[in-house]
C-alpha cells in the first residue's frame, strides 16, 4: 500500500505540468466543504436509497441537506481513494436547483434530488472520463451517456465519479497510476473490481447507490468484497449508447450497486423457509467445463476491444488512437494482456473463425445448457457464492493471490461464478449476507435465465416469489 502511495505521488509530480488537466485527477481527491457546514445530526448518510428517495419526495429533507451529509462522509473517507473526481460546488448547485423546482411546486419525481456516484467509465458532461487509464485523463466529454441523461431527467444529482480497475480490465481496482481503492472494512485489502470506487463509497456510507458496469463480474465482485448489492442486468436491458468506455460490447452492460441491509435479507430468507422452500443442489460442472473449453476469455477482448475503444475515441473527437492508449496503460497486467491482443498473429488460437463460431454455434449451445439447469431443477433462481474468497490484501498485488498454498490469478479466484452470464447475456445479482471469518464481507449471488431480472429493484431487494436452489459451481476451485 505504501509502495502504491509513493508511486502515485511520484507519478503526480511527473505529470505536474502547468495548467494540465492531469494534475487534479491523480492522488486522493479532497472534498472541501463550505465553511459552517452543519454536521449530519439527522444521520442522513445512513439512509438506504429507497428511504432517502421517500423522504426527499415527501420534502422531509432537501436535496442539499442530503448531498451535504454524503459529502461530509466522503470527506471523512477521502483516504479510501474511491472518488476520481468530486466537484462540491457543482453538486450543491445541482441539488439546490432540484430544491428550487420543488419549492416552486414543480414535479421533481421520481428521484427528487437523490445524489449518487458514477463509475469513471461513464460520460458525465464536464467531468473527466479517464476509465482509470493515463492516456484518457484529458477526456472531458461535453455530453452525458444515455443513462446519465435519464438519471438527470429523473431529477437525480451526480455526487461524483469513482475510481476503478484500469479500463475495467481486472477484478481488484488496484490501479498503479491512480493508486488502489482501499476497502473500508479493512484498508489493507482491495475492494474487488472493476467498479471498486462505487462499492467502497457505498460501504463507507458516502453514497447509498451508484452506477457500475459488468463485463465479467465488475458490478458483482466489488459488491461481494465490500458488502453491497451489485447488479448485472440481462444484457441489452439498458442502453449504453456511445457514452460508456467499452471493453467487450457483446458482454458489457451498465449496472447498479446499492446498499442492501442484511436484516432485510435475513427476513426474506426466514420468510422463504417458513413458506416451506426446499433448497436443492444443482451440478453446474458440465456447463462450466463447456464454457471453460470453448469460450477463451481472450477472444471477446481480442476481437472487440480495439474496435470498440477506437469507436469511442472517434465519436469523442479524440486525437488518441487505440494503439497510443494501449501503449500508455499503467498496470503491468493490463498492459501485457492488451499488448498480446495488439500483437496477436491471426493464425494463433483463438482465430477469427473461433470467435465467429462462438456466436453461430457455441453461444446458443451454452445458453440452452444453462437454461436446461433451471428446467431440470424446476427453479427460476439459482444461488451461488459470489466469489471463492473475501477481499485479499493489496500487498499481495496483481495479478496473483496466495490461496490455500497455491498462487492463483485474481481473475480465476474471483470470477468463477461471474463469467458465463456475460457470455449469454444472463443477469446476476450480488447480495451481502454478512461478514466472514476475516471480518470482511461475503456475498451471495442470485442468478436467473437471460431476460429475467431486467427490472429487478436492488434498492428494496424485492426478489419476488421464486423457488430457490444452491449450486456447487464454486467448488471447482476449492
Ligand atoms: C422527517 O421524517 C422523520 C422520520 O420519519 C421524522 O422523524 C422527522 O420529524 C421528519 N422531519 C420533518 C422536517 O418532516
Ligand atoms: C459544460 O461547461 C461549459 C463551459 O463551462 C458550459 O458551457 C456547458 O453548459 C457545460 N455543460 C453541461 C452539460 O453542464
Ligand atoms: C453532443 O450532443 C449534441 C446534441 O445532441 C450533438 O450535436 C453532438 O454531436 C454531441 N457530441 C458528441 C461529441 O457526441
Ligand atoms: C486486515 O487485514 C490484514 C491482512 O491484510 C490482517 O492482517 C488484519 O488483521 C486485518 N485487520 C483487522 C482489523 O481485521
Ligand atoms: C421492464 O419495464 C419496462 C417498463 O416498465 C417494460 O416495458 C418491460 O417489459 C419490463 N421488462 C421485463 C423483462 O419485465
From TrEMBL:
Residues annotated as signal peptide: 1-23
Residues covered by the Amidase domain: 78-260, 263-451
Keyword Secreted: no
Any GO molecular function: catalytic activity
Domain of life: Eukaryota
InterPro entries: Amidase, Amidase_dom, AS_sf
Pfam family, one: Amidase
UniProt KW keywords: Signal
PANTHER family linked to this entry: GLUTAMYL-TRNA(GLN) AMIDOTRANSFERASE SUBUNIT A, TRANSAMIDASE
Name of the protein this chain belongs to: Amidase domain-containing protein
